[in-house]
Amino acid sequence: MEMESVLRPLTVVGGAVVITLLAGWLLDLLLRRADGRHRETPLWGLLRRCRVPFQLLLGAALLRAAYRQTKVLPDHSVGVARALNLVLIASAAWLLVRIATAVVDAWYARYAAAAPDSARVRRVRTQVTLIQRVVTAVFVVVALAAMLLTFPAMRTMGASLLASAGVLGIVAGIAAQSSLSNLFAGLQIAFGDTVRIGDTVVVDREWGTVEEITLTFLTVRTWDERRITMPVSYFTGKPYENWSRGGAEMTGTVFWHLDHSAPVALMRERLADLLKDIPEWDGRSSGLVVTGTTPTTIEVRAVVTAKDANDVWTVRCAVRERMIAWLVAEHPGALPRLATSLPPGGAVSS
Questions:
Q1: Which one has a higher pLDDT value, 14 or 100?
Q2: Is the domain defined by 178-242 classed in CATH 2.30.30.60?
Q3: Burial (0-12, 13-18, 19+ Cβ within 10 Å), 306
Q4: Residue 282's closest CA among 309, 255, 254, 242?
Q5: How far, in Å, CA of 221 to CA of 226, rounded?
């Protein structure tokens, strides 16, 4: 009898473990073969991430079904059963999240590979990311609610909770007003197409690239690798610059303050030659004109274009540096001069 009390739980638990491991291995094998046959979609490869939650779900279900036959911890059968139920619910939610994520990621990968418009791809990516977060949050909330309902005390509290739901809803709405505003702002950004992942924006006099958008906050990566995190409600309640709106192409300017004798016509020709050797210039437009004058200098402005904000910055710096080097070497008289002697006729009148 004692031998049976030892062998039975070992057999049941061991059998459940073996079946779980074999099922996980078989699932992974089938997904690998499907992934090899269908290279046009990454879905089957992404579904391989479901192996661990699938095994956890299967193992919990087998142990829950066979627990009465194991007669393990008979004095704590209620607690063990409840623990297995909690694992079952959590693993089911985890598996559903992994499946939904794999399906959405596979669809987005195929869409991004086929879509020629990068702006539309960034918009869809933003929407997909936020939808994934909403779906994940829904699964987590439902799973937590189901786990709480496994406790008898929580079920008996249901009537009183429903009776006070109106008051609690008002209190929760006031307390979570900021969070809710950010939540709705995130959904507005996702489907209003005001800002997308990958857009170049200027916020609080800092320019950078939108790196991440969640339901409550947005992260901007600046040119010097800093991250600026701010609530998404900022982008629905305050003005900001979006340099990628309508296209990522940018036009940049370069200014020089030179002497009145500067060879503007030659500088215009030199600019055309310089841009040919700068790969970041996209060839759309360029120009050089005099935009201002003072008693001692003139202001010369060059206009250049590039495919995005990073490239236009590179083109501006390269043009500025190479033009100054050319002026120093070929036309030093074009540089501003500071008078160090009195004009003819004597002292300057006061």
A1: 100
A2: yes
A3: buried
A4: 309
A5: 6
